[in-house]
Structures are given as C-alpha cells and as structure tokens.
Amino acid sequence: MGHTIRHRGVVERAERDRVFVRVEKESACAGCHAKGLCGESGSERVIEVHTSQAEEYRAGERVVVALERGSMGALSVLWAYVLPLVVLLVVLFGLHALGVGDGPAALASIGAVALYYVGLRVMRHYFDRKIKFTIIKE
C-alpha cells in the first residue's frame, strides 16, 4: 500500500459508532485526482469516521483523521469519472445509431449520467465500507 493521507481536525460531535470531524482543506487536496469523492469543496468539510471507540471523543477535541492511500484512489476515479463518461458515450452513440436525433440523444445521455450519479448516491454505504478513515487523538 501507499502512504497515509492525514488531516488535522476538530471533533464536531460523536454518536454511537461514528465521530464527525471538521477538517480544513489542505493544499495537497488541490492536486488529488479523487477530491470530488471525498467531498473536497469550500475551505473545510466534515468527515464521518466509523469507530467502536466513538464514546472516547468529545466535541471540540483536536484529532487527526487518516486515510490509507491505495487502490481506492484509482477506483474512485473510475467510479466518479470514467464510468459516467462511458455511460454518456454509449447512450449518445447508441441512440444516434438507432436514428434518434442529436438533441434528444444528448438529453437522454445527460439523463442517463444523472441516473448513474443517483445510483452512486444510493450505493454510498458500499463505498463507506470500502474507504476507511481512522481517527487518533492529537
């Protein structure tokens, strides 16, 4: 595996088996190819960390959230960018080959990609199990 990506943050709240940590976006995020999947937007974001020790963390406590770099980065790019492009092109050219006009084929392609992203959203729990964050006290 690769090295670990670490973010310093502050515990926002802890619930049963989850800790919500507010982290500031770091300059390393700007060059990351999977930044869209981890919620990189704005100057800060909240990361949900699943842990059996959630009761040990209190709001306002400073912590470090870590993510092991590995194959999930490549898979994230595949799911977020490559597969939607394939869906768009297959629907567009498939409908065009069936004699559907350019406008309706383009709209159907965009609709298909929108449905694809809705499907990804529905499957977010699958991805939550695959992308594991860990948390440690600072």
Describe, in plain words, how this protein is organized in 3D.
It is a single chain. The chain has helices spanning 27-30, 71-97, 102-122, 124-130, and strands spanning 4-15, 18-24, 44-50, 62-68, 133-137. With 138 residues, it is of the alpha+beta class. It folds into 2 domains: 4-69 and 131-137, Beta Barrel (OB fold (Dihydrolipoamide Acetyltransferase, E2P)), CATH 2.40.50; 73-122, no CATH class. Strands 3-2-1-4-5 form a 5-stranded antiparallel β-sheet, with no helix packed on it. A hairpin with a 2-residue loop joins β1 and β2 (18-24). α2 runs antiparallel to α3 (102-122).
In short:
The chain folds into two domains: 4-69 and 131-137, Beta Barrel (OB fold (Dihydrolipoamide Acetyltransferase, E2P)), CATH 2.40.50; 73-122, no CATH class.
Task: Pick out its properties.
5 strands; alpha+beta; OB fold (Dihydrolipoamide Acetyltransferase, E2P); 138 residues; five-stranded antiparallel sheet; 28% strand; elongated; 4 helices
Cα shape? elongated
Distance between the first and last residues' Cα: 24 Å
User: How many domains?
Assistant: 2
From the 3D coordinates, which CATH architecture of the largest domain would you assign?
Beta Barrel
Report the average pLDDT across residues: 84
Largest sheet: 5 strands, antiparallel
Query: How many H/I helical runs?
Result: 4
Q: Point out poorly predicted stretches.
A: none
Helices and strands, in order, run as EEHEEHHHE
Rg to the nearest angstrom? 19 Å
Helix fraction? 40-55%
CATH topology of the largest domain: OB fold (Dihydrolipoamide Acetyltransferase, E2P)
The portion of residues forming beta strands comes to 25-35%
Structural class: alpha+beta
- Give a count of the beta strands, DSSP E runs of length 2 or more: 5
**Broad CATH class of the largest domain:** Mainly Beta
Q: For the largest beta sheet, what order do the strands appear in spatially?
A: 3-2-1-4-5
